[in-house]
Each structure stands twice: as structure tokens, then as C-alpha cells.
Specification:
Helices cover 71% and strands 0% of the residues. It is mostly helical. The chain has one domain.
Amino acid sequence: MNPTQGGWLILVTIGVAMVLAIMHLPESWPQWLGWIRPAWIPLVIFYWVMELPHRLGLTSAWIVGLCVDVLYADPLGLNGFLLAAITYFAWRFYERLRMYSVAQQCSVVFLLIMASESVRMMVQDLVWDRGWTWAVIIPALTSTLLWPFVYLVLHRLQVQVRVE
């Protein structure tokens, strides 16, 4: 078994998630659609850690998080911490998470994204005095609704490329 087999797919999916996270919508679309953007990067990280915990670890998640800090212009280390926390949770409970149905995984995704976005909003409130809003729920809801689709697409890619 080649240990690097399929590693490029993990990097590509994380890269695509980063592009989707910062992509602007066309100007002809309503502006409110920008508010319902899901948390693409945590979804992809959660999937790969849940399915292949030996391929993606805390250090990798931290490095991806530092890149996300640069993309979002967030305080350095914020997204690294959040992605590392999601990675730790998925790594700690990956056997149990794999046995859950997709609906149960959706509830776990909702709680993880909700906690992550709440911490992000608290830190941004402390650093930039942006204030607290209920908009923290929207990425958690959209990520929860998209989780079955993300799971299906990434699982099919994993099987086709034979990522082990």
C-alpha cells in the first residue's frame, strides 16, 4: 500500500473548499444569498478526519487554519484553533461517527459549526468590536443541510481514487 496514494485528493478538496469559502456571488444575484454561505472548510476537514483519521491530523488542520486566517483576514491562529478543535473531536470519536446515520451526523455537524462560529464571533467582537448577532446560526444551518451532499460527493471521490 502506498501511503501517499490519494493525498493529492485531500489537498485538492481542501483547496476547493477554500475557494468556495471566499468566492463572491455574481452581482445580479440577491445580496442575502451571501449570508447563507456554508462553512465549507470545516465540512471538508470533518469528513476527511472522520473517514481517514490517520491521513489528516491536528498539525495539518492547524496549518490549513492559518491559511484560512489569511484568506478571511481573521486574527492569526483563530481558524487554526477552530479547525484543530474540530479535528480533535472527529479524531476522538471517528469510530462512533462512522456508525451514525447521515441524519445523526448532521446534528453533530450542526453542533460543531455552531460552536465554531460562536467562538469566531466572540473573538471578532473582542478584537474588532463587531458585536454579537444571531447570524451565527445561518452557517450552521446551511452546513447541516449540505452535509449529506458533501458526504456523498467526497465519499464517491474517495472510493474512485482509492484514498486509503
